[in-house]
Amino acid sequence: MAEDVRAIARAAPFVTHVTRFGRPMSVRMTAAGRFGWVVERGRYGYAERHHSGVGWPPIPDSVMAVWRAVVPDARDPECCLVNWYGPEARMGLHQDRDEADLAQPVVSISLGDDGRFRIGNLERGGRTEAVWLRSGDVVVLEGAARLRFHGVDRIAPGTSTLLDAPGRINLTLRVVT
Ligand SMILES: O=C(O)CCC(=O)C(=O)O
Ligand SMILES: [Fe+2]
């Protein structure tokens, strides 16, 4: 799967991920599938093309196989975001709610160095729990958990040799329409 992800990175343009509050997150991002996520001049959202005009490569079979194994009743994913976290990168607590059909699950696959995933509640604030995600771990946000706040507050460089450089890749699969 790491080789498939390298192929996506070669084929798809990189965009810098910026939070919805306009704060840079130091996470680099690209995508596969019908939709990618683009950030341009403060506007962000799903798009069938990068603003350079380039579309996104197909979601690899190895990644589709994970989706089908863990959420067999879901529609096929229309977007596979590829987030690259360097050793210092973070992703603040947020909800995934830009999709039209929130009854469809979100599936994420962790590759490379361990990342500490934090999950909170359906509203901002309150108690949160953290879990270290290791290379190969799969998280499913569905049902009552679909809209829980979540983020990544730490990367542990050097905990995996899968990738060529220190860091973590997270693949996030979603149905968009
Ligand atoms: O990197 C992760 O484990 C979470 C990614 C995420 O929450 C997102 O891309 O919306
Ligand atoms: Fe998310």
From TrEMBL:
Q: Which cofactor does it need?
A: Fe(2+)
- InterPro entries assigned: Alkb, AlkB-like, AlkB-like_sf, Oxoglu/Fe-dep_dioxygenase_dom
GO molecular function per UniProt = dioxygenase activity
Task: Provide the protein name.
Answer: Alpha-ketoglutarate-dependent dioxygenase AlkB
Q: Where is the Fe2OG dioxygenase domain?
A: 76-177
Q: Which Pfam family would be a valid example here?
A: 2OG-FeII_Oxy_2
Q: What is the lineage of its organism?
A: Bacteria, Pseudomonadati, Pseudomonadota, Alphaproteobacteria, Rhodobacterales
Recorded hits in PANTHER family, A to Z, give:
ALKYLATED DNA REPAIR PROTEIN ALKB-RELATED (PTHR16557), NUCLEIC ACID DIOXYGENASE ALKBH1 (PTHR16557:SF2)
Disulfide bond in keyword set = no
Q: Which domain of life is it from?
A: Bacteria
